[in-house]
Amino acid sequence: MLWVRGGNTFVLRAQMARSGADDVLRDLLRNDSLVYAGYSAGACVMTPTLRGLDSSDDPSEVFGTCGMQPIWEGLGVVPFAIVPHHPPATPSGGEETVPLEDAAAVRRTVAALRVAGIEYRTLTDEQVIVVDGESTELM
Asked: What DSSP string runs through 3-37?
């Protein structure tokens, strides 16, 4: 099992490419030899595209950190973009209070994905996406 935390999604994706981990992960997952779990950026890199995430993560950090240009393609394990840290609904139907910076980043990312016509799912910090073979389920 591999657990990948958050941070800047573009830096994580670039480091995966620099190290070759992106190809290794795809192969291990395809062969059902690895359970991958990711939080925040760790989940976002599993999508087909990182477009829209530049509304919450700065792709310009990649060059200074990794010495390369940002990679805008994710690993494509999940068939849609992921917007993490969405506020959970309350029993009254509203949304729980989350830090203003997180809520603003979620709104910016959702708006960017909508404008670009990119399919996405929002995730609270309590939700998961499970990919098992051809099945992808939000829980």
From this structure: EE--S-HHHHHHHHHHHTHHHHHHHHHHTT---EE
